[in-house]
Design brief:
Elements lengths: L5 E5 L2 E5 L23 E7 L6 E8 L6 E4 L2 E2 L5 H6 L1 H10 L4 E8 L9 H16 L6 H11 L11 E4 L12 E5 L7 E7 L9 H11 L6 H18 L2 H20 L10 H17 L4 E4 L6 E6 L3 H8 L7 E7 L4 E2 L7 E2 L4 E2 L5
Parallel strand pairs: 5-7
Antiparallel strand pairs: 1-4, 1-14, 2-3, 3-8, 3-13, 4-7, 5-6, 8-9, 10-12, 10-13, 11-12, 15-16
Bound molecules: ligand DP6.
The site of ligand DP6 has 15 residues, from helix 5.
Length: 361
Amino acid sequence: MEDKIVTVSTRPNLALVKYWGKRRKGEECEDPFLNLPQNSSLSITLESGKDLLTKTSVVFSGKLSKDEFYLDGKKQDLEDKELQERFLAIKKLRELAGVNTKALVVSYNTFPTASGLASSASGLAALTFAASKALGLDIGSERLSEITRIGSGSACRSLFGGFVVWDRGRKPDGSDSIAWQLFNEDYWHEITILICITTPKKKKISSRLGMKNTVESSEFFKLRPKIAEAHLKQITEAIKKKDFSAMGRIIMKDAMNMHSTMLDTMPPIIYLNDISKEIIYAIEDLNESEKRIVGAYTFDAGPNACIICMKSDKAKILSKINEIKGIERIIEAKVGSGPKLLSESESLIDIKNLTPLQNKK
Ligand code: DP6
């Protein structure tokens, strides 16, 4: 096989109904590495110009003696257990292609890595999307989502733009736990997302470990899958009707429901900080005074708030939020598109030497 560099760009996604907790072996799951979720989830893909983007080049070559992975200019240790788990997706793709050639992967993120914004989602989606193309595999996005999920659960939703559902599925082999597009990025232009960075620091406990602890120790979590599935039904209806108030209420309820199971974990997981709480109070205050849902907040596994609102209410939210001290940066996003194949000139790999191209993002 001729060495072929494939370069792609992908975007993170923001879950409006969250994924938190995997099925364990025997719970309609034959292998925990499949990352099979306890409940279905729904996300929007985020687009913010040159911010919030992953760019990745992949090449498989017989000249490589082992896999190599460079992230944001730094060579990564592929002996690391978590990275090895994530690279299982590549192993799966190799099996499908019937090859054993090693890969060079060069990747850049244009947003704070591991800050609670899901850089792993766009990163893993970029990796499998680019790798499947580099291996010449002709598989559709839904099928690819099954493999991407093995790298990181939430990553399977970044294979699509717009509003995306990840079905829980029932089969122990995970073949029905796939992501699909509910509506594309052009469906609801008025939706705006304000991402308030309250700290760019790396989070204390990874989602992977956090959700494992929650499944093992939280009593509240036993209620979570049923609640999340109900939220998914309700939010799908709200999105179909473009009913912002109904959608906003579910977004906030679902985020807080997930965080309550984190708090009920032993030892407790507390991702929100004082500024996150100030943001919750400010939005509640605004919604109360306007007697409608002007904005809806949500938080992933970190303290950064994402506020979803209509474009026409953006100024109102910003003026309220700007009263809060300590927000480091606000990134504005819209509902964005799925992965893109980039041209050869955008490659991050020097094909002659099979090394990362310096100073190229
Ligand atoms: C809070 O997808 O990062 O962002 O499957 O172990 O890689 P792994 O976890 P990950 O978890 C994301 C959790 C979340 C909620 C969500 O995105 O649905």
